[in-house]
Amino acid sequence: MTKTILITGCSSGIGYDAAHGLTAAGWKVIASARKTEDCERLRQEGLSCVQMDMADPASIDAGFAQAMELTGGRLDALYNNAAFACPGAAEDLPAGALREIFETNLFGLHDLTCRAIKVMRQQGSNGEGRILQCSSVLGLVGVRWRAAYVSTKFALEGLTDVMRQEMRDTGIKFILIEPGPITSRIRANSIPHFERWINWRASPRRAQYEASLLKRLYEPKKDPDRFELPASAVTAKILQALEAPRPRARYAITVPTHIMAIARRILPVNALDWLASKG
Fold it and tell me: What is the sign of the dihedral through the CA atoms of 220, 222, 228 and 233?
């Protein structure tokens, strides 16, 4: 039987590569994207796609129902990938910005996860399925200018740890995928959120914005970030997590993620802060 997977956030980057890569590996992939035009493009590329805005419960409800129609009501795996960033100093983040990013990066993700669990519980003698959560190296350590994104990924790590423990008496496995620097559009896609929420010109850190964050956001990249890997590196780990008889709880991707996973366990706080400041 061909196994089925629902992947969120497939318009570009990690989700896009995963949708095509898993299709090539023999999975029946249901991709999702927020915008109508992205869904149409993905369908033209041969993918099954449903429209799903992770900040809109009604959209999640409709998109998931459509996905289940496409799979005949079976779901072997869910990969929660959809997320965005809102860069800026923590003291300049309005509460509204945090509410907005948590709606997509955590609350909507959890809504979809609970829907998937209900389907998976009906499969096999004790329920069966795998739920993969796309975390980040920024779910392991905090880095300046990224407070909003870091907060959602730290929360996702904790939520997934608890759900993994709670679901231990079922056949449903929870797995964290932890990329580091991956080629994607997340930086470009974060600019509208930065411009909407961050009043950097009025910030006491204006000079720091001008010397650092603004250049990173608006100036073209001359070279890839150090240690940056293509999105296909994530797809390879996803396949390992899906097909391993006993999947690991976490799959780290890129050198920085491996280093930070070790560093946060062995370094004192001041040393870890210094190391994180180099990122």
Answer: positive
Which residues lie below 8 Å from residue 85, measured CB to CB, with a gap of 6+? 101, 146, 148, 149, 186, 187, 189, 190, 193
Closest CA to 177 of 160, 190, 163: 160
Query: Which pTM does this prediction carry?
Result: 0.95
Catalytic residue (one of 79, 149, 209, 251) = 149
Q: For 220-267, how does the pLDDT look when each residue is reduced to its tens digit (9 = 90+)?
A: 887 777 899 999 999 999 999 999 999 999 999 999 999 999 999 999
Catalytic site includes residue 149: yes
**Residue 157 phi, psi (nearest 5):** -60, -45
196/96 Cα distance (integer angstroms): 11
The vertex-162 CA angle with 270 and 243, nearest 5°, equals 100
Q: What is the 3-state secondary structure (H, E, C) of 94-140?
A: CHHHHHHHHHHHHHHHHHHHHHHHHHHCCCCCCCCEEEEEECCHHHC
Q: Which residues of 222-251 are buried (b: 16+ CB within 10 A; e: fewer)?
A: eeebeebbebebbbbbbeebbeeeebeebb
> How far is 110 from 192, CA to CA, in rounded Å?
25
CB distance 185 to 231 below 8 Å? no
Count of all residues that appear for the chain in the document? 279
